[in-house]
Each structure stands twice: as structure tokens, then as C-alpha cells.
Amino acid sequence: MTTAHDFAFKSITGGDMPMSQFKGKAVLVVNVASQCGLTPQYAGLEALWKDKKDKGLIVLGVPANNFGAQEPGTEGEIKTFCETRFGVDFPMTAKEDVIGGSAHPMYKWLAGELGEDAAPKWNFHKYLINKDGSIAGVFGPRTTPDDAEMNAAIDAALEK
Fold first, then answer.
1. Which residues contact 94 (CB under 8 A, 6 or more apart)?
2. Residue 51 pLDDT class (50, 70, 90 cuts)
3. Which of 12, 27, 28, 36 is catalytic?
4. Which domains, and CATH codes, for the chain?
5. What pLDDT digit, counting tens, does each position of 106-143 carry?
């Protein structure tokens, strides 16, 4: 059975980032963009990461330029923006496509498992991955990082 742990990204700094390194952790995978009206969610994602990382949560930012061309920068520009504007220090991948034929393989797998309705429709779409790599939930772009329902799902994933 395929799980999220079977996939790998490139880090925003260029190194390999296999999802298998997150075995035993819950992972909130978020396609992010620097020039979106939802970009202030970075602050909430960082707060969520700081609050729950010691309990086993990984917040994983996946920069994507698929929606409104709102992530036009290079990896270096994106990293600098996130660090200086929002103090982001949660892990981030290199820029990826998250929809369509050129979508990252993990995003293709997620859409295949959950159906196209669960594929990202905009920036800051969130997938919650269980410690074993299975899919725990999906949350739309307008679900903020402090959303009670999403946090309950994260807490449940952390307790498994």
C-alpha cells in the first residue's frame, strides 16, 4: 500500500527531503504562496508548528505557483520572504506544481486517493498525514491554522 512516506521532495535549500524522514510524526502539508491574500496564514502556520512540534507535528510548506501566479520567486527569494516577514522556520520544499499533469507525485497520489474534489483549488490547501503515512484529513485554503476542527484532527493524529 502506498503512503505519503513513499514520496520525496527537494528541500527549499536544495537537499533531498524524503517523506520517510517524518515516519512517526503527523505532517500538515500546505501548498503556500508569497503573494496571496491568504499569505498571512504563514504566521499561524509558524505558531502551530511552534506549539505542536514537540508533540510530533511537522508543518511542511510546499511553494506552488499554480494559482494566480502568486509564487513567482526563486527558492531563495521565497525562503528569505518567509523568514523575514513571518519568522518561518518549519520545513519547506522546493517550488512544485500541486495540480495538473506536472503535479508533484505525492499531490497526484493524494488526488487519486481522495478524488479530484480534494485536490488543491487555491493556495494554502492543507493535507494532514498520519504518523504511518496514511491520509488523516484535508482542509481547504480558508481553513486557518487555528481552526478548532483542524486542530482536533491534528491532535487525534498525534495521539495515534
1. 9, 10, 11, 12, 14, 63, 75
2. very high
3. 36
4. 4-14+23-159 (3.40.30.10)
5. 999 999 999 989 999 999 999 999 999 999 999 999 99
